[in-house]
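seq:
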Amino acid sequence: MTLALTNALVILCTGADPIPGGTVVLDGERIAYAGPAAGAPPAARTVDCTGRTIMPGLVDAHVHFMYHEVSDNWSIEVTKPVEEAMLDATLNAALLLRRGVTSCREVGTRGMISIVLRDAIAAGRIPGPRTRASKQIISVWGGLGDFHPTHVFKREQYLPALTEIITGPWEARNAVRQHVKDGADWIKCEASGTGFNPLCPADRDTMSFEELKAIVDEATEKNRPVACHAESKGSIIKAARAGVRTIEHAVYLDDESLEAVLEAGCAICPTLGLYSAFAWEGADTGMPPAVVANHQATNARHVASIKQAHDAGVTIIAGSDAGLSAFPQPGVHREVCTYVERVGMSAHDALLTATRNASRVIGLGDEVGTLEAGKLADLLILRESPLDRIRALAEEESVVAVLQGGKVVAGAL
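struct:
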């Protein structure tokens, strides 16, 4: 049955201007038309959306489904059994969908959680965003994923951890092979520390270029893109030159590393909202003082880095990294707001980071991310326009309805 949603402000997220009084026509699971009312084809049913805004469902390019009330390294892995992490992941997937996140990229999990969850969502067994999944984060000793003091774990991996620790290019290649065998859509690795790990600060390079290049080369042979956690200047340069598809965070971007990013054509996923929340809300939500201090020391630099990248024409994709006590799930809405409020993007450009840009980069651009005929009918209908007030995007009460593949999955028409 065809359905016409009429008299709405339609934000196509193609880069074209929004359409006041526009119409979106659905034919089953796909969009049949999106544009001015005068050009709309007839439909079997019509819903008057006067005063509402219709835009594509959101795409979160940096999700960890299992993150729930995480406050430190221990609460990611040690204090929860993997069974509880799977339960958290399942509940978070449903929460993201209810809030309008209809697609996502999962960039780090314990065991096979994201793979199993992706397949269950695709089969219609549980609700959640359509997912591009990775497995563990490939890391090195003394790196991002070496979370705990040496006297506790002594360079020994425990299963299932959030990271898989490798030494040397051949172990790096073997890790990629295993991830591809297990069904990963993306390979996630790291090349720097982070303010969240007091044992490995954000300005420290970790993985060698040889290891990083081996990951990318093996992944490329297997037709898999690579996402790389890279906060330090050196790690950004290494990641770009190695050929990763996306750089996560990019805290210490400067002229030299920006040149490497532009030459490589990779996208940046800042997760700036999370890092800002660590800095300015973390102390009130139980984050360790060292983590708060680390992020307060780097936050202004991070904002400046993302502004520099955006102004230079780098593709920015919105990712939340949410689920921590200072930044609960879902977080991509707040991430988009941060781009307007702190980076200085226009509201329209900010919305593109969580729709068109993100869908193209994570590999779903042919199906979702814009309102165009033939694409899947993933829609977010809001009570007011985020172009007028960007914070409307982040307010749960603003959501009128969420559609995924033409079906109402939250709210009502």
